Amino acid sequence: MDDDITQAVLSRDEVARYLRGGPGLTPDQAHQQISAYLEELKTTQRYSVYRTLKHPLYPILRKVRRHPEHVELAQAATRSNRVVYASNHKSHLDYLVELLVLDDHGIRPPVIAAGINLFNGAMGLLNRHVTGAIPIRRNSRDPAYLATLRAYVAELVQRRDLFLYLEGGRSYSGEFKPLKTGLLQAVILARRPDVVIVPVAIAYDLVLEDQALVHQGVKRRQRRFTMEVAEMVRYAVGYESRAFVTFGQPIPLATIDPDSKRDLVMLKRRTRDAIGKLYKVLPTALLAAALRPSMPRQHLVDRIDQLLDTLRLTKANLGVETGRQAVEQATRPLVTRSVIVVEGDRYRVRNRHVLRYYARTLTHLLNDSSRSNPTH
User: What is the pLDDT of residues 174-192, one digit of tens each?
Assistant: First the structure.
């Protein structure tokens, strides 16, 4: 299949223009450059081996209880369509949890698009030759690379389902980031009439690497994935969480014009809105959004009830119905994680940076509410 994709990519108009050479490049040099990019993008998914990965990873995965929602939508979509999943990105566990949910329900495995920092050392061999992940140079501005990537993804869509994280990386602030259009445009360029986007949202009570994310703040450079894995193992001590994976109604692409910038922008907006609405509003996020530096329990319950009333206006995917339920379910995890302290009837902030991280996971929903209710 790799040879077929390579030939198809090289024959695409956008790539062929670069093959003719350009400023500072001969045709031979251009061909070598694009061939090197194609070699980098090649991936193989050995599904039988991939499925066994859950066993060596059991010490971490057993700490995460998977809760799929509306998975029947993905099952139905794969029966008659080429499917491109578009998800938010919270943790390095996402790659495992979301694809295991698909596997648990007998849904054919997609190819994942992942940052190139996940392709170092042994993890790189695993991602390239077992899990079937495509390495993406997220910060590249090389037009030859971008043209090759778009063409490769467009050709891959002709053959396989894809799983994309269109934010371009994990959120370091907790907020649902704006989506990037590069890979979305590549999917449209496949010009395959049966392609649909299935929006997916993943939410955790606690994100495994929450403290590492907030300490790093604004991401200035990509670290080696092996370093991040070591960090995750350290933070896994005492860690437990639910992971809600929620699937949405498929978004058809048959009427999208690949050459229309307006269509691309509207599709990006529709996809982001769909993912945002699917995102499970969990007790930890509600408590984090409501808590002030020091607050009596009943005042906290009342503030969460007000938040829930606001979120209902946006038709948010609520995990609890009352402030009392949220406080009862969120207190122990956040205390255990050293994010808050409870002294008698009073709640205090212990780690304001991590608390703010969880509070910001609801920003996109609360902003939607303020736009729909401008007088409030």
Answer: 999 999 999 999 999 999 9
Question: Which of these, 167, 164, 153, 175, lies nearest to 198 by C-alpha position?
Answer: 164
Give me 308's structure tokens.
Answer: 């829930």
Q: Which of 263, 278, 293 is the last residue of a domain?
A: 278
CATH number, domain containing residue 126: 3.40.1130.10
Q: Which of the listed residues 278, 294, 323 is the one where a domain comes to its end?
A: 278
Asked if residue 5 belongs to a domain, the reply is no
Looking up tokens 């009862």, which residue turns up?
328
Residues 124/224, Cβ–Cβ less than 8 Å: no
Q: By residue range, what is the domain housing residue 155? A: 42-278
Q: 16-25, 135-144, 316-325, 335-344 — which is least confidently predicted? A: 16-25
Q: Specify which residues 348 forms β-bridges with.
A: 294, 341
Q: Measure the CA–CA gap between 83 and 77, rounded to whole angstroms.
A: 7
Enumerate the H helices of the chain as residue ranges: 2-10, 13-19, 27-41, 47-51, 58-61, 71-80, 94-104, 121-129, 143-157, 182-189, 210-216, 225-235, 261-278, 283-290, 297-313, 323-336, 352-359, 363-372
pTM for this entry: 0.90
pLDDT, average across residues 1-5: 72
* Single-letter residue type at 24: G
What's the rounded Cα separation, in Å, for the pair 30 and 54?
41
Residue with tokens 């007088």, as numbered in its chain: 375
Q: What's the structural domain count of the chain?
A: 2
| Cα of 150 vs its chain's centroid, Å | 19
Q: How much is the average pLDDT of 308-324?
A: 97
Burial (CB count <10 Å: 0-12, 13-18, 19+), residue 126:
middle
